[in-house]
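[job 0412] stage=complex_fold ligand=zinc ion status=START
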Amino acid sequence: MMTPPKRDGIGDWCYPALCLPLLAAWLCGSSLAHAATPFDLVIQNGRVIDPESQLDAVRSVGIRDGQVAAISDKPLDAAQVIDAAGLVVSPGFINLHSHSAAEAGYRLELLDGVTTVLELEAGTFPIARFGQQLGDAPLTHFGASVGHAWIRMLVVDPQALSDIAATGKVDISGRAFTQSATVEQRAQIRSMIEQELLAGGLGIGLLLDYMTRAVDDAERDMVFAVAAQHEVPVFVHVRRGIDGDPTGLDEVIAAAELTGAAVHICHLNASAMSGVTQWLDKIDAARARGVDVTTEMYPWTAGSAMISSDVFSRDWRTIFSIDYADVQWAETGEWLTQERFAHYRQTRPGGQTVHHYIDASWNQAALSRNHVMVASDAMPLMNYDRKVVPNGAGTSSRVLGHYVREQKWLTLSDAIARLSLLPARRMAPFAPAFARKGRIQVGADADLVIFDPQTVSARATYLEPFLAPTGIHSVVVAGRVSVQHGQMLDTAGVGTQITSLTP
Ligand SMILES: [Zn+2]
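[job 0412] stage=complex_fold status=DONE, emitting structure tokens
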């Protein structure tokens, strides 16, 4: 079973704070069902899977006012009924790690069954304005951590932020990414992080790998100390070493242990590479010592970067254990040679590449530990004119189709837990709204996915990264049907921002 933060005394199967009200509501709900209470929406005859209660049976789910109001083995009545016979009804997926950023990206996530999209690795600044880019009617729920990198830029190199606004690109050769902070600057960064946490930020996002030269031990430990003080996790992209080198992991586990902060390691498979098992052994040993450390993986096998980016300024062939032939020009799918790589880098510096460096066996190893969550690491997507990795369009569907049905690496209920319950449990101790998500129980938020376990599949590929999956029949967000028969309904979304202050 899943065992998140021990410091909260949280048991294996449910949160006391959640379960008592849910139990009371369930008892009430059972009797109310007999009174033919009208529901706004009923999902009839689906195979309802709730990993927390371990319900896996055909049930009808009655939804009222955006919440699950009844779960019955008898048919329920409502003005709107979805017949889910032969289909699975699952809690909506919670993506801890997405840079989707705008409606184009959120649309793909929604079609992939994601009902809560979170930007926790890079975070944002300021929290109060996060979501403005999603318009008045966001398609999914959303939220973000406090972005250390953004605050650091504002303090160390304010011009960098103006440049990003003007060009849409982050120049990581600038001072904010290369220069240590002075004592005064560090104090200023600390104070701004604290203000943003008080404004509801979902933890602190820390991009150590992009700031290897800039963030010294004092600044790193300051970030962890602030997180500990505010009882929120640090979501971290650890510094990358040569393939498998665990130094970047050791550093953040030590910082977490020193300060008492919780830490979440982003994209374990991408950072650990061939060292996944060794990294997981270290993570499990730390968990056994009482360190609150969790991690996630994505179910794909490549990274995506501009050919001029810093990724390719380092000794990337050694670091990633790959060669030119493992790099694809995203626009055409051309596999590169040294000559073609040099040609594109000179003539098309803004062009996108896909570098294939993750072995499928590393992903299998990551999923072999039952606490490892799944998150997409979807790239920013303002529109569909720049090909990126297919993570944003096909993470849940790839896990459910390829890993569960075809590879049989994990059970359906286990996969659903990695995509919904475990992320909800990770977030709930400091953001109470998550105690109502990731579950199908009376009183839980009615964020639901209905899919066909026989056909669910990602269709997105490295050449066609924006194809929506097949087999995801319907998606319900806050009790409203947003996707039906795999198509977006022509209605505005009902997603809301989740902060640590959301009740
Ligand atoms: Zn990352």
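Residues 121, 237, 266-267 surround zinc ion (CB under 6 Å).
[job 0412] exit 0
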